[in-house]
Write a structure and sequence with these properties.
The chain is of the alpha/beta class. Among the domains are: 31-346, ABC transporter transmembrane region fold; 450-522, P-loop containing nucleotide triphosphate hydrolases (Rossmann fold, 3-Layer(aba) Sandwich). The protein has 21 helices and 10 strands. The chain has helices spanning 23-26, 29-38, 44-73, 75-80, 84-134, 137-142, 145-152, 159-187, 189-236, 238-243, 247-299, 305-346, 407-413, 437-442, 458-463, 471-480, 484-488, 507-521, 537-551, 586-592, 595-601, and strands at 368-376, 382-391, 396-400, 422-427, 430-431, 444-447, 525-529, 555-559, 571-576, 579-584. It is elongated and about 125 Å long. The two termini are 24 Å apart.
Length: 606
């Protein structure tokens, strides 16, 4: 016996069978960092080349003060040498060569490094989209499309820069710092020690504001996701908005989210400004210290005047790693924060997945069985308890009754859009959880009341039902769904662009296209959930005839409010909040003079 909850919630909540995403899974820096590194694996040769070019950039930068130091130290000797001009020209040639090498290396690092970063960014975005395709209905019941779009698009924008500039800035910065310190030590160990002593101060300062930026950037990414959600919701329902003249209300709601995002960005920019201004001030301060201390060392006779010039040139090289550290911190916060949000999505486990050793389905006869099925979208919101039903192969079974009694849920359990919480759903005697999902869902066709068409042409949308179908098969499916005539009346016929979600078509036209798409799929099991609700009477009669033709030799479950759609069904289940009230053919149920007969008397009200 079927038991139904009289106060069942809408089908928005998640599924209790879902493995929840734990907080511990959200905080796995080592695991995520390893995954971050693995994205370089397909590009190791290019990555090595970019790092090699980065080494040349650092080496060429150090070559300039080193060559200058050689010239300064050998200047008295060169002035008296007969080949002084030749030696100076040679040293100048070395400096020019270093300049050329540096220019070419910078070009290679910038161009090829960005290409590598863009490829990795595209791969992360691909992984996110692919993973989202596998996540179950229960996941989307709990998440907004705008939030997911933000993770796939906005959060990944800085990933390419991080994947490119992260290793590059680290390599160039480290090599330049080491090289510059070596030169400073060789010229004056005291000044080198003073400079080295100031570096930890800069690092601590950077780390402090780095932590503040991290919090602000995380908040900004969450807020822009909310902005995207608001935009997606308002523009997706623009016809409803304008029909109620609620543009000011939508603007008000948008401004709330937009202002919240602006506030989060302001906090981030404040921390970023403190970081950059502080680091720039540190560079200037170090320069002043070196100039003053160098002058004192010259006065005391511990340093030559020319050496001060070399020290200042080397200091210019030394401040570049500090600027790169600033840039790396910014990129790390922007990119790795987005990477973590991407990983949170990738770590979501699909509630519905193939079991180990899931079987292929083979030829399907179409026998459907519900054995003591219990189901709840959320704990405490039971839909079914002990529901049993058997549909024989080739039977045309109709489910009728008021909204909210579980008719659609029955259809959702057959192709495993949700899993039962108890009992079993069987297809040809096999638990649907033991079958491969792709095979199971290819064997089940579904036409829902909530019509969804993709942007593109009529032809593209019909072909979605079976990508390998021939033109004749597509046209035949359209004719079977009573869609061919209106398609041919469109400006470009089957090649007419129907706009996003088919906005250029009427409700009935969109419904007939989705029915034609199901006809083209030609599965052994068909589920129609209010599939004719948007059709006019004439179109409905034509589709009914097509349904009867299509039902031959296959199992069909039809949910309908219009009883005329199902009067020729082999069985009609009349469902109420208290369970299955009646079960029989149209004539049998009419003879009972019960619930079904009363529904017929008030046709169009239920």
């Amino acid at each position: 016996m079927l038991s139904l909850s009289s106060k069942r919630a809408k089908r928005a909540p998640g599924n209790t069978s879902r493995k929840p995403y734990s907080a511990s899974a959200a905080a796995r820096p080592p695991t995520r960092f390893r995954r971050f590194v693995t994205y370089y694996q397909p590009h190791l040769s290019l990555f090595a080349a970019v790092l090699g070019a980065a080494v040349l950039v650092a080496a060429a930068a150090i070559a300039l003060p080193v060559t200058t130091s050689v010239i300064v130290s050998r200047l008295p000797e060169l002035l008296s040498a007969p080949d002084a001009v030749s030696q100076l020209l040679t040293l100048g040639g070395v400096m020019l060569l270093a300049f050329v090498v540096q220019t070419l290396a910078v070009y290679f690092v910038d161009y090829k490094g960005h290409v590598m970063g863009a490829r990795i960014e595209a791969q992360v975005r691909h992984d996110l989209f692919e993973h989202c395709q596998r996540l179950s209905f229960s996941f989307y019941d709990r998440r907004r499309t705008g939030q997911l779009m933000s993770r796939i698009t906005n959060d990944s924008l800085w990933l390419g820069e991080l994947f490119h500039h992260g290793p590059e800035d680290a390599a160039i910065g480290l090599l330049k710092f080491i090289g510059a310190m070596v030169v400073l030590i060789s010229i004056d160990p005291l000044i080198a020690g003073v400079v080295a002593a100031t570096v930890p101060v800069a690092v601590v300062y950077a780390l402090y504001f780095n932590a503040r930026m991290k919090v602000a950037l995380q908040s900004s990414k969450e807020r822009i996701a909310s902005v995207n959600e608001r935009v997606e919701d308002a523009l997706g329902g623009i016809r409803v908005v304008q029909s109620f003249a609620n543009e000011p209300e939508e603007l008000r709601r948008f401004e709330i989210e937009n202002q919240s995002f602006l506030d989060s960005r302001r906090d981030g920019y404040r921390s970023e400004a403190m970081l950059w201004s502080g680091m720039e001030g540190f560079n200037q301060l170090v320069s002043v210290v070196v100039i003053v201390l160098g002058a004192l060392r010259i006065v005391s006779g511990h340093l030559e005047t020319g050496d001060l010039l070399v020290l200042l040139m080397t200091l210019g090289v030394l401040t570049d790693p500090l600027r790169r550290m600033d840039n790396f911190i910014r990129l790390w916060q922007e990119g790795y924060t987005g990477f973590n949000r991407a990983m949170e999505l990738l770590e979501e486990e699909p509630a519905i997945a193939d079991r180990p050793n899931a079987a292929t389905i083979g030829n399907v006869a179409g026998r459907i069985e519900f054995e003591n099925v219990g189901f709840a979208y959320e704990e405490g919101q039971t839909v079914f308890s002990g529901f049993s039903l058997t549909v024989e192969p080739g039977q045309f079974v109709a489910l009728v009754g008021p909204s909210g009694v579980g008719k659609t849920t029955i259809c959702n359990l057959i192709p495993r859009f949700y899993d039962v919480t108890s009992g079993r759903v069987l297809l040809d005697g096999r638990d649907v959880r033991d079958l491969r999902l792709d095979h199971l869902r290819r064997s089940v066709g579904l036409v829902q009341q909530d019509v969804y068409l993709f942007s593109g042409t009529v032809w593209d949308n019909l072909l979605y039902g079976r990508p390998g179908a021939t033109g004749d098969e597509i046209v035949a499916a359209a004719k079977a769904a009573n869609a061919h005539d209106f398609i041919m009346a469109l400006p470009q016929g089957y090649d007419t662009d129907i706009g996003q979600r088919g906005v250029k078509l009427s409700g009935g036209q969109k419904q007939r296209l989705t029915i034609a798409r199901a006809f083209l799929k030609n599965p052994p099991v068909l589920l129609f959930d209010e599939a004719t609700s948007a059709l006019d009477n004439e179109s409905e009669r034509a589709v009914q005839r097509a349904l009867f033709d299509l039902a031959k030799g296959r199992t069909m479950l039809v949910i309908a409010h219009r009883l005329s759609t199902v009067r020729h069904a082999d069985r009609i289940l009349v469902m109420t909040e208290n369970g299955v009230a009646e079960d029989g053919t149209h004539d049998e149920l009419m003879a009972l003079d019960g619930v079904y007969a009363r529904l017929q008397a008030v046709q169009g009200i239920i």
